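Please go through the protein record below and see whether the fold suits the sequence. Record follows.
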Amino acid sequence: MNYRKFIFSVFLITVFCFSFGTRGFTAPPEAKQNMILVADTLGVLDSLALKTQFKNPHLSQFYARKALAIAKGQKSTEQLIHAYIIAGVACIANKNDSSVYYYNKALNLSDSTKNKTHKPSIYYNLAVLYSAADYYKTAIILLDSAIRLAEDQKNFSVKSNAFNALGNIKMQIKDFSDARRLYDSAYRIAERYSLYKQMGASLSNLAKFEKETSSSIKKQLIAISWLKRNSGTEDEIASILINIGNRQKKPDSAIYYYKSALKLVQNGNLPSTEIGAYNNLAYSYLDKGDIITAESCIANYAIPLALRENVKGWIASLYDTYADILIAKSDFKGAVTYQKKAIASRIEADNQRASEQVRLLAALLDLNNKELTIQAKEKELLIQSNHLQRFRLWFLISVLFVIGTIFVALWLQQRSRAKLQREQINSAKRIIEMEESEKGRTARELHDITGQLVMGLTGEIENIETLDPAVKTQIKNKITDLGRSIRLISHRMNKAMLEHFTFEELVTGQCTDMQKLTGIKILLEMPEQSLSLREETIQHTYRIIQELLVNAGKYVKNGTIKIIVTSKNDKFQIHYSDNGPGFDPEKLQKSGMGLMNINERAKLIGGRATVNSTPGSGTTWEIIGPVDGKK
């Protein structure tokens, strides 16, 4: 096993997340066309409801009910939410508690379907209601949410409106510096995206902060020019004209602006703004001393209009104004009568406002209670979710700890094995080095003693007188050949002498010597090109072949030995076979030093040795090793 290619498998943990939703479908072309027509119809009804919400609240609510009926007939959550918003807008003039109901329906539907498109508008309209009920803190929170969501939805008209509404709240609580900053933010957003209606509204608010009357009027006139680019802005323009008239020092200039406002609101049927314009116009005529025209403005126009529309707050104010006119006429008795009427109407107006305020507060409190219940449930779900997340986290940590422990254990085991392998290799090297040293010493002794023996034997034979000279010469030649062979064997036994021979020369010489000494037939095949082997590889491979031939010399008496050396890519292979008696490798492995030497030397060169032998069937070896030191 090659431990340097050790691969560690890491566990993969999959966490399943469940989500619920509806599957999308492709509507047929007719259905798509119908949805477009419905959306267009809702848009028209929305526009009509907005235009008539103050002029004619009942008509506005009629348009809203129509839009709601159409939306409920469709299977579009988007259109139904839109219709609920239209209904809320239509009710805001005289049924603001109903507005809370419809906005709440729109908000719940948006939350349940995760539809964020209309949420900025819902939050903005709810904030307006909270502000009307003097719940400024909640209104500010809702407006902040509207601004954030409007930014996400790219609904910059709602974003600008929300900044304007925040500025209005700051004005109510006398935080004028912050109010100015918020109006400025509203104007910058509107200007960046060419939202003319919002530009006019925010600029008219910024005009309030101008110390110079001329500068204020200039900004208000610019605001009117922006508002005129949008239809349905008559009420806003008329209000600005009334404000400009209020800042005029000359009655005639004021009268001009009030009459301009009246012209707009009379055409647009805006009773509250019309009443306000008549009231201010009456005072301007009083300033001029034109009591008759002033009285006509109140008695003939303003009071009848207020009574018809049942605007009790304005009725009380108009009675006060008429009392002032009667005082100017020196009709003190009539003035007292209208003062009493004004007080009675004021009480009725306050009661009406209080009743509306109570209904609105009740609706808002009910909404708050529902929100608190939802928040409590969400908190409970959040706690459960946190518990589940903590469990998953600890489970993941536990799994990672187990994986880490297994990894460390395997790493330590691998390290121990590697250390044991290194120790085994080092031990094998030391044993082989000792063996090589012993062979070197034996080779030197053989070399030294061989020359003396050859000379001695040759001299002895020469002194034998009875032998035929021809026989003597033959014996001496054989002794000389034997000495030469022994010296060659001693050279190949000596590690230092191996450096002077190539691998092919060593193997060929070893086979030739063994064949001469034992008489066994040895068939050797070498590659055509010389093998490029390291010195260490040559040494160990040669010793392996030497060990195989020595073993064969002991057991293969009359057989044949075949050695085939081949090379392919970065590996060389030595195939050895003989037809000797064979052996049992498992039994011999425990006691045979030769087998151990062959295997250890193969490992030392980064290769392997495989034996295949059975008693009576000969023996084969496959030795594979790297060329050029590649493993």
Confidence is low (pLDDT under 50) at residues 1-33. Residues 575 and 622 are 5 Å apart (CA to CA). Residues 332-463 form the longest helix (132 residues). The two ends are 13 Å apart (CA to CA).
